[in-house]
Known about the structure:
The structure is a single chain. This protein is an alpha/beta fold. It folds into two domains: 171 residues, Rossmann fold (3-Layer(aba) Sandwich); 191 residues, Dehydroquinate synthase-like - alpha domain (Dehydroquinate synthase-like, alpha domain). It is built from 13 helices and ten strands. A six-stranded parallel β-sheet has the order 1-10-5-4-2-3, with helices on both faces. The protein has a two-stranded antiparallel sheet with strand order 6-9. The chain is globular.
Amino acid sequence: MQFFLSTDITVGVHEALSLEQHLAGLGSCRPAVIHDAAIAETPYFRDVLKKLTATCPGAVVYCNDFKGEPTYRLLEEVAGFFRPKTIDSVVAIGGGSTMDLGKGVALLMQNEVPALSLKGFPSDVQDPLPLMTVPSLLGSGAEVSYNAVFIDQDAGRKLGINSRKNFPKKCVVDPQLSMTAPIGSVVASAMDSLVHCVDSFGSVKHTPLSRIFSVEGFRRTFYALQQDQLDRAESRIDLAIGSICGTAALMNSGDGPTNGFAYYLGVKHKVPHGLAGAIFLKEVMRWNHLHGYDKYSMLNPTGACLTASDATAELLAQMDELYRRHRIPNLVPYGYGSGNAAEFAREASGALQGSFSGNPVPFDADAALEVVRRLV
């Protein structure tokens, strides 16, 4: 059994106001700062950026206003912006897409090759510049993972740059940065955590150690969503811990059908990844339960006195209520119904056999069709 997590993590309210101290720990004073346009005008972020640039006068700032997940072309453009500058690290402040962009820029600064040549799992690459991630949404897990998602526009595929050299050296989680995010984005990002936790929990490649992270991440995230007090810093810290735990578990096990469906729907209809995963999560879990998989009972903290089957059924009932409360949609708003459900299931199945193979119960095209039919 092996387990890895290679990022130094600091979590604390107002911790982002001390980014220069964390940079000093990396031996950096001239960072490339990439931040989300969505937070550019928020008062707290402006305070963070003002202090960072005042204490690091060599900082070079780039505002990422790209809508959706980054493309390899965007990565080339942003790397080209920074190449003439004298920078010694990268700080990515924002959601998962901006943090992924930061990973790509850090790598390209030390590897002058076309971005597309790094797609997949590149080898023989030079170490990137030190990267610090500062999430403004809590759930994608990009702040501690080595995966970086990028879209190949010509091929219409979501591929990415996946190298363990991408691991951020430092992650600073400050719940205050997420307080101005739209509640819909907060919920979608938290649902992304649940997908990571559930997929990694059920993965055929799970280990006893990865499951500890899956269970803890799920329970903290699920509780925060159930309590519906996401405007409190304490709840955001639970989301932060859930995000880190879920991603650590996923990196040390593997994904499953939910994550695969999310990738397919996200590329096809430009649905945010967290929301896309949420659409499928509950029904994939229900399909597994109906086909004899009752170990989800371990995710239910109130099911200790129930049989495994009953505890799983109770958890699914709680998820039904959670979906109603947070208005998680089905596939109908994206143009799917009984007439084209089979087409969607067939296309998704053809593209996602790798993800399907991680499911704890054998999952094929017929299983995909059953899940999709529940969502139309």
